[in-house]
Amino acid sequence: xxxxxxxxxxxxxxxxxxxxxxxxxxxxxxxxxxxxxxxxxxxxxxxxxxxxxxxxxxxxxxxxxxxxxxxxxxxxxxxxxxxxxxxxxxxxxxxxxxxxxxxxxxxxxxxxxxxxxxxxxxxxxxxxxxxxxxxxxxxxxxxxxxxxxxxxxxxxxxxxxxxxxxxxxxxxxxxxxxxxxxxxx
Length: 185
Fold this sequence. Notes:
Number of strands: 5
Order of helices and strands: EHEHEHEHEHHH
Number of helices: 7
Strand order of the largest sheet: 3-2-1-4-5
Number of domains: 2
Strand content: 15-25%
Radius of gyration: 17 Å
CATH superfamily of the largest domain: HUPs
Distance between the termini: 55 Å
């Protein structure tokens, strides 16, 4: 019997409750899921691969402890094309979260291209209604422009809020520079 391994890809910069919602629901569809942290060349990363991987591993461990039934999950990061990574780990599908019609349009184009170029299918999972307006970009913008980090508690786990707070204190980080210049709390 063949095992069905899927990769759930994204930059996860930072990882949110919306991401964890998609991951949790995907565990009922596959035998194993790899949360695969990639690089989006169109976005400057706030957190390093190691930081994102560390946060994701801690949150996945919590998830597996609370809900031991379902697919195994591991966290990895990769560089290069997602389809090349998918082939390297033997994935049968790429999981993508969909929040709205705008996401769907862009993701469909990518899914069709991935199927034509690499023969890999994409599985879309619609996010829970509580997370339909959550995006990592919005979270970073709120943090960078002085929004209350505690107000993000409905969007991101405490480990992410702590990491954002640490970035604000770091003058070498873009968010920290804004804070130093008096533009953030």
